[in-house]
Write a structure and sequence with these properties.
Largest sheet: 5 strands, mixed
Shape: elongated
Distance between the termini: 52 Å
Order of helices and strands: HEEHEHHEEHHHH
Number of domains: 2
Number of strands: 5
Number of helices: 8
Length: 227
């Protein structure tokens, strides 16, 4: 069997500001799911690059880890590999102002390249360990045993679980959080630009910053009263 102590990899860290944007993970996994329009998917993907520099689909993991798609599916289901999934719930208008009727059924799935590379290094280390223990000779039976350990006794080549969706209520709740987070991020960016202008002596920006501070203070007060 594979030694668990040498099969774990460092996971990417999700900033607190992006937690509601990436969505909640499936139980027992690191598969984060989000829902929204095709345009929201574009923004979601751009923000993912604050988590890792590069991403690949499940089929692209083999470029960095040398693992089969079945091995990727197994590791995802075990919660030992991160994936970000986005389900398109509605299409927006195309270039000619018409709403596209066909909605993509399968989610977009992206896996951090940094985790793929780390996993590839572990697999290579494990293979070298097997070669060393057997004096440089590895029989076909040993190779099959290694593959079964990585892919599972019954390899899942389809990855049917990738298409699973949450309940309608949970999807709507997730979409709502997504849009609220977008507004907060945009507001934060606008405030940062205003504060930069205010620091340069722009009187209009100074007044706007003060108004925003008062508004945020009142909002926090209302929230504490409601709680």
């Amino acid at each position: 069997m594979i030694d668990k102590t040498i099969t774990e990899i460092p996971f990417v860290v999700i900033p607190a500001a992006l937690e509601e944007i990436v969505g909640e993970p499936d139980k027992g996994t690191r598969m984060f799911r989000q829902y929204g329009t095709d345009r929201e998917c574009t923004l979601w993907f751009e923000l993912l690059h604050q988590i890792d520099r590069q991403f690949v689909s499940p089929g692209g993991v083999s470029m960095f880890a040398g693992a089969s798609r079945a091995a990727v599916h197994k590791r995802l289901r075990e919660g030992r590999l991160t994936a970000f999934c986005f389900h398109i719930t509605r299409q927006t208008q195309n270039w000619f102002g018409r709403v596209q009727q066909v909605v993509k059924k399968e989610p977009y799935v992206y896996i951090p390249v940094s985790e793929c590379k780390a996993w590839g290094q572990l697999l290579e280390r494990r293979a070298n360990e097997i070669i060393w223990r057997n004096g440089g000779k590895v029989s076909p039976e040993m190779q099959k045993l290694f593959e079964s350990e990585v892919e599972g006794e019954k390899p899942d080549w389809d990855g049917w679980f990738l298409n699973l969706k949450k309940s309608v209520k949970d999807r709507e709740k997730s979409e709502k959080k997504l849009r609220e987070s977008w507004r907060e991020l945009r507001t934060a960016d606008e405030l940062e630009r205003l504060e930069e202008s205010a620091s340069e002596g722009d009187e209009g920006a100074i007044e706007e910053v003060e108004r925003n501070k008062k508004a945020r203070k009142q909002k926090r007060g209302q929230a504490s009263e409601e709680s």
